[in-house]
Amino acid sequence: MPALVAIATRAQPRVRWSSVVLPKEHGSWSLALEPLALGLLAVPSVPGLWLALAAFAGFLARRPLRLARRETDVARRHAAVQALAILAGVALGALIVAFMLAPVNLIGWLVAPALAGAVFLVFDLQNDGREGAAEIAGATAFAAFTGTIAAAGGWTFVGAGALLFAMCGRAIPTVMAVRSYVRSTKTGRLQPLPALVAATLAAATAMVLSWRGLLPLVVPIALTLLWLRTWVLLVFPRPRIRARTLGFQELGWGVAYVVSVALLWSM
User: Fold this and answer.
1) If pLDDT is split at 50, 70 and 90, which confidence band does 125 have?
2) Which CATH class is domain 2-264?
C-alpha cells in the first residue's frame, strides 16, 4: 500500500502557485498598483495599508477564479481553487481589519470600486476582459480605490475625492489611449477621438479644480503632460512602437505621476 501511495503521489503533476495566480497581462500590474501606491504615499495609514492588501489580493484572485471555472486539467483547477480560497480569505480579513481601524465608515467609499469591479468581472468571466468597457471598468475600480485609502487615512470627503479624481484622470485616458494604439497596430485603423476627448476632459477639469483650490497644481501639470503624450501617440506620424516598449513607457509615466503627485500634493 505505501508503494501505491508513493506512485500515485509521484503521478500527480506539481502545479506552481505562481502559474495559477500571477496575471499574464503586464499592463494590469501598473493599473492595479499605481492607485494603491498613490493612496499609500499621499495618505500613509495603517487602515489604508490593510485596504491596499485587500485590493491586491482581489487583483491576484482574478486568474484563479477564471481557471477554477474553465480549467480542464484537474491538478491546475485544484490549485486554482486553493489559491482563490486563500486570496478571498486574505481580502476579506484585510477588509474587516481596515473597517475596524478606519476613523470613518468606508462603505460609501467602496461603492464605486465595487460597482466598477463587478462590471469588469461580468465581462471577464464571459472571456471579454479585453473589451473596451471591461478595461475601462477595471481601471476605474482600482483608481477609485485611491479615494477609499485616503478616507481610511482620515482625509475629508473633498480631499479624498480630489485624490480619487487625480488617479482616475491618469488611469482612464491612459487605458483608452494605449488600447487605441495597440488596436491600430493590429487592425490598421486608428480611432484616436475617444482617448483624446478623455485626456482633454481630465486635464481641463484638473485645471478648473486647481484654480478653485481643490487640487494642487502638480495634478493639472501632470495631466497636461499626459494629454500631450496622448496626442503624440495617437495623432502625429511616428515609427511603430512595439507593445512591450509601449508598456515600459507607460510604466515610466505611471511611476513619475504617482511619485510627483504624492510628494507634491501638500506643497
Assistant:
1) confident
2) mainly alpha
